[in-house]
Amino acid sequence: MTITRRTLASVGAAALAAPLLSRGLGAADIPATATSGGGAVAADPGHSMDAYPAHWLGKEKIAFLIYPGFTALDMVGPHYMLGSLMGASTYIVGKTQDPVVSDMGLTITPQASFATCPTDLDILFVPGGGAGTLAAMKDGATLNFIRDRGARAKIISSVCTGSLLLAAAGLLKGYNATSHWVARDLLKDFGAIPVNQRVVVDRNRITGAGVTAGLDFGLSLVAQLRDADYAMAMQLLAEYHPEPPYDSGTPERAGTQTTAMIADMFNSFVADVRTLAKSIQ
Amino acid sequence: MTITRRTLASVGAAALAAPLLSRGLGAADIPATATSGGGAVAADPGHSMDAYPAHWLGKEKIAFLIYPGFTALDMVGPHYMLGSLMGASTYIVGKTQDPVVSDMGLTITPQASFATCPTDLDILFVPGGGAGTLAAMKDGATLNFIRDRGARAKIISSVCTGSLLLAAAGLLKGYNATSHWVARDLLKDFGAIPVNQRVVVDRNRITGAGVTAGLDFGLSLVAQLRDADYAMAMQLLAEYHPEPPYDSGTPERAGTQTTAMIADMFNSFVADVRTLAKSIQ
User: Catalytic site residue A117?
Assistant: First the structure.
């Protein structure tokens, strides 16, 4: 469940009389080239923007890069959170607008291409992956897009190995950052400073750890861009009261055997990234 | 990051000598009509299936229903977890194979249609949404598909308001079940027994609470279909060590004001579902 124009329309005039009840967290129903959070709300005659705290209405342009072999969950978690920022516009961006297939076979169609993505972004977001991320790190057009939009973006961000892509584009030199635990140390090879933390903020670089860290990343960013009340409402909407069935979400908790099993599967990925880092420098 | 055929291929013969290191959790790189977890591994000359515990290799057919206005995160979390079941095949299923737009504007192309989806499924999974879920609950073809596949599926499952769709199809009568907290009580209107729990298992019905509960739902199901070791490895791969920035993920934790604000946005959704329930009975 998300807040759409239709759910917002269900909040009647009576509710608007009570300041708290009048608040909305809108995202439009269905986009043309982008999904608008706030514009739709402002245009809704059933809603007066006066009823919202003024700072709840933004106008951010947020681009979510996708590329062949990206991990969908890395992107969809943050998209859920940031897509509910009232007034913001979100863009799923591919090299072209042809459908992009994720590492697990989900086919997602971009809303914009490198050519049509707004040039001045508030937030550039990059998800991770495995072999697909490595391929993207070798792709000049992808690196150029990240460098170009990153040069003017107010916030440059990633989840999982998306930080390797930012690093390969030269955007993390001298910055504290994190990544999926398998790949975190690789950040050093690109001049970044790896930090073992779920969400790392260093100036305008915000990086999240592996896959599911995108939820914590997204909520943190919602709080930064709006306020704690807004983020808490989004956490409730997402019913984000996690109850993992086990306690094995980090190498420290999972223990050496399970960690070695997973890490071993990425040996060649790690080696290939190291080789690439050398060739870049 | 996920385990793909390529990451599995990186586990060499030496690693296979150590039983633990030899384990893999495969999902194929890119599907034709479905995404295979295990078949690809068995076919990989670099891997002997003898190295895996026999019960780690399954052959489940798992269908993820999508429909206009569904909430992508409801589906993508479980898909991440279940798509890594070695030997399993996952199918993103739409009414047709035309692209389906989520409530937040993500466009996803199904891998199968109601007509081409395998008839005998091991797992039928249904995600939730708001207005789109209500529309699907009124759509005869969608209800027929759920009833037909549900009649033979070994496990019938949902996250968020997906349980309302199962209920509207008559599949939850007399069953304990859960849903998004906004919609949980509505289950009664369809003869189900609402339970305030993040994941509810009653015989072969497994339902998860709102949106992010899909992660806990998915891991629980992985443990049920394989074992705890497998699920713990997946939890580590997903780096699922949640650190929500606030403690507001349930109505009980968020408090009455925030809860009322969100609940109020869904007043007309709730009323419409109640009306629909009456018309069905």
Answer: no
The model's pLDDT over A2-23, given as tens digits with 9 standing for 90+, comes to 876 555 544 432 333 233 223 3
Residue with tokens 């970044």: A192
Residue B251 lies in a domain: no
The answer to whether residues A172 and A186 touch, using CB atoms and an 8 Å cutoff, is no
DSSP 3-state assignment of B134?
helix
A15 contact partners, CB below 8 Å, separation of at least 6: A21, A22, B264
Q: Which residues of B touch A111 (CB under 8 A)?
A: 105, 107
Closest to B107 (Cα-Cα) out of A66, A78, A212, A214: A66
Q: Does residue A253 sit within a domain?
A: no
Residue B39 lies in a domain: no
Interface membership of B226 toward A (CB under 8 Å): no
Cβ-contact A265, B234 below 8 angstroms: no
SS3 of chain A: the string is CCCEHHHHHCCCHHHHHCCCCCCCCCECCCCCCCEECCHHHHHCCCCCHHHCCHHHCCCCEEEEECCCCECHHHHHHHHHHHCCCCCCEEEEEECCCCCEECCCCCEEECCEECCCCCCCCCEEEECCECHHHHHHHCCHHHHHHHHHHHHHCCEEEEECCHHHHHHHCCCCCCCEECCCCCCHHHHHHHCCEECCCCEEEECCEEEECCCCHHHHHHHHHHHHHCCHHHHHHHHHHCCCCCCCCCCCCCHHHHCHHHHHHHHHHCHHHHHHHHHHHHHHC
What number of residues does chain B have?
Answer: 281
Question: How far is it, in rounded angstroms, from Cα A275 to Cα B17?
Answer: 27
How close does chain B come to A193, measured CA to CA in Å? 20
Q: Hey, what are B228's tokens?
A: 């705890």
**B165: domain range?**
55-240+275-280
* Cβ within 8 Å, pair A211-B236: no
| Mean pLDDT for the stretch of residues A194-201 | 98
Residue type, B31: P
Q: What is the ipTM of this complex?
A: 0.89
Q: Structure tokens of A144?
A: 């150029």
Residues A47/A52/A54/A60 CA torsion (nearest 10 deg)? -70
Tell me how many domains chain A contains. Answer: 1
Q: What would the pLDDT profile of A225-239 be if each residue is shown by its tens digit?
A: 999 999 999 999 999
CATH number, domain of A152, equals: 3.40.50.880
Whether residue B28 lies inside any domain: the answer is no
